[in-house]
Specification:
399 residues; four-stranded mixed beta sheet; 11 helices; 26% strand; FAD/NAD(P)-binding domain; eight-stranded mixed beta sheet; alpha+beta
């Protein structure tokens, strides 16, 4: 049996960042991180868009607003220090028609309240940044938005964690608990304190500790279509004005760290938690659970789940994805978009008592354990300051 002072479950960017912050605060503590996959970042952390968001989408009273601006600054500085390539291409947010203008103004207002550098542009000024852009009358430009390879960031953080004295065991999956003992597929671990950053299974682990009573993870599959146009064919990220009532940003153009364009993502309801491709990782119990929860949301949900599901499922069609993207830029044709990227699964938290998607980060815990229940986008951007926030709560809980 192993022993440790702190056991972190989950080797994504959040788990690694929390482990590093715990070690920084307690240099004599034995910090052990376990990851069920053969390598860290195998799920959301290594499959996300790689966008470092600026922080103007989020209501000023939210944790996302608090951590995105600071996270952007710190993760940008980290990438520069580690010489990880960054594409500082910025982001245009565009309006498709007059109905989008009030929400565009709301985004600008939020940006000002959140202290985010944001430029209000005319259509002509938007075209000076990206000649192919399409917008109705006005647009917003975020110069602080950039892109990076997320796996390069995870790999660098993992390297740093190991050199800081953190023990990382891959291929080690959580199986259950018995008081202070955590059972894995390898052995048992006696942990002084447990931090659950398990993403798609965070709610399941939390329930073993008496938490997540009113929350369950609802998985959504994200897919991108990659352009075969040369790097620089589109210069900047282009996003539509989002529906601020839900946490998804709509189909948009993301410019990768190497300058290539991709369109997406989808937010398709997944059939089970790791429903990446075909019947891979098939889990009958999860299929029944997710299907039951989805059917329950068709009536009485705090958002229009039926409309969302139908709209997203339609995006399995390349022509539909390209059609949605063509609203944002000129010269977008289907034959340039033939290749789907690796799917990602968003571990979206659902409040089952209110039947609504949680828009902000959610944390629950006590003097024995802490559980990161909702760490969806922009958690990658927020990872460094969010880890400090989690550790502040751990410090208070331990006393």
């Amino acid at each position: 049996m192993q022993t440790c002072d702190f056991l972190v479950i989950g080797g994504g960017v959040i788990g690694i960042s929390i482990a590093r912050e715990l070690r920084r605060r307690r240099t004599d503590a034995l910090v052990l991180l376990i990851e069920k996959e053969p390598s860290c970042g195998a799920h959301a952390s290594g499959r996300n868009s790689g966008v470092l968001h600026a922080g103007f989408y989020y209501s000023p009273d939210s944790l996302k607003a608090k951590f995105t601006r600071l996270g952007n600054e710190r993760l940008t500085a980290y990438c520069e220090e580690k010489q990880i390539p960054l594409n500082k291409c910025g982001k245009l947010v565009v309006a498709k028609d007059a109905a989008d203008l009030p929400s565009l103004d709301e985004l600008f207002r939020r940006g000002q309240l959140n202290g985010i550098e944001l430029q209000a542009l005319t259509e002509a000024e938007a075209k000076s940044i990206e000649p192919r852009v399409r917008t109705y009358q006005r647009a917003l430009f975020s110069p602080r938005t950039s892109t990076v390879s997320p796996l390069q960031v995870v790999n660098a953080m993992q390297y740093d964690a190991l050199h800081e004295g953190i023990q990382i065991q891959c291929g080690t999956a959580y199986r259950g608990r018995d008081n202070k003992k955590v059972w894995t597929n390898q052995d048992s671990i006696e942990a002084g304190y447990v931090v659950n950053a398990a993403g798609l299974y965070a709610d399941k682990i939390a329930m073993d500790y008496g938490f997540s009573e009113k929350y369950r993870i609802l998985p959504f599959k994200g897919l991108y279509l990659y352009s075969d146009e040369p790097p620089g064919a589109i210069r900047t990220n282009i996003y539509p004005v989002p529906d601020l009532r839900n946490p998804f940003l709509g189909v948009h153009f993301t410019i990768t760290a190497d300058g290539k364009a991709k369109i997406g993502p989808t937010a398709i309801p997944a059939l089970w938690r790791e429903n990446y491709q075909g019947l891979g990782n098939f889990n009958l119990r999860e299929l029944a659970e997710v299907a039951s929860r989805g059917l329950g949301l068709l009536t009485g949900a705090g958002f229009d789940f039926r409309r969302l599901a139908m709209e997203e499922i339609a995006k399995y069609s390349r022509s539909k994805m390209v059609s949605l993207a063509s609203v944002l830029a000129e010269g977008v044709v289907e034959h340039h978009y033939q290749t789907w990227g690796r799917p990602g699964i968003r571990a979206q938290l659902l409040d089952i008592t209110k039947k609504k998607l949680e828009m902000d980060f959610v944390l629950e815990g006590d003097h024995r354990s802490m559980h990161v229940l909702n760490a969806v986008s922009p958690a990658f951007t927020c990872s460094i300051p969010f880890a400090s926030y989690v550790c502040d709560h751990i410090d208070k809980a331990i006393g």
